[in-house]
């Protein structure tokens, strides 16, 4: 729902959003280093999925996707690129933006966006199930 992607480049949101909950460039760099095979960088196709090493998924059967982008999530630029990349690959993708939330905000059920998200997920799932 809030995809975790990255790349070698520092995006505007990664540079601008310092000191927000959960996500920092230092932490994501560490995670990518721990996750990726020795010798690869963050432009690896599983991290920078629509970057220079991207795999063409236009012929792949890919489920409809629902994305939530938070205004305080440093990963938001990567999430928006993911949205664009899926669209360009001919995939069905819906993006919902909440300006006042951070990465993982749905762990706090008392936030107003939590209820909005539940409503969005519910109608998305209902719509998808009515199509099959
Ligand atoms: C990584 O990918 C970005 C595009 O997302 C590109 O501009 C940059 O040159 C690449 N860097 C390396 C080190 O491959």
Automatic annotation (TrEMBL):
Domain Alpha/beta hydrolase fold-3 stretches: 11-106
Pfam families: Abhydrolase_3
Example GO molecular function: carboxylic ester hydrolase activity
Tree of life domain: Eukaryota
Gene Ontology terms describing biological process: pollen tube growth
InterPro entries membership: AB_hydrolase_3, AB_hydrolase_fold, Carboxylest/Gibb_receptor
Record-stated family: Belongs to the 'GDXG' lipolytic enzyme family.
The protein, known as: Alpha/beta hydrolase fold-3 domain-containing protein
Classification lineage: Eukaryota, Viridiplantae, Streptophyta, Embryophyta, Tracheophyta
């Amino acid at each position: 729902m809030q995809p975790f992607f990255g790349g070698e480049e520092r995006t505007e949101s990664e540079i601008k959003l310092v000191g927000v909950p959960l996500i920092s460039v230092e932490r994501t760099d560490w995670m990518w280093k721990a996750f990726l095979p020795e010798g690869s960088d963050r432009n690896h196709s599983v991290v920078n999925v629509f970057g220079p090493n991207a795999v063409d998924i236009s012929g792949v059967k890919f489920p409809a996707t629902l994305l939530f982008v938070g205004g305080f999530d440093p990963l938001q630029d990567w999430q928006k690129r993911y949205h664009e990349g899926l669209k360009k690959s001919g995939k069905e993708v819906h993006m919902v933006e909440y300006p006042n939330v951070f990465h993982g905000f749905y762990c706090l059920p008392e936030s107003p966006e939590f209820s909005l998200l539940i409503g969005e997920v519910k109608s998305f799932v209902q719509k998808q199930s009515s199509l099959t």
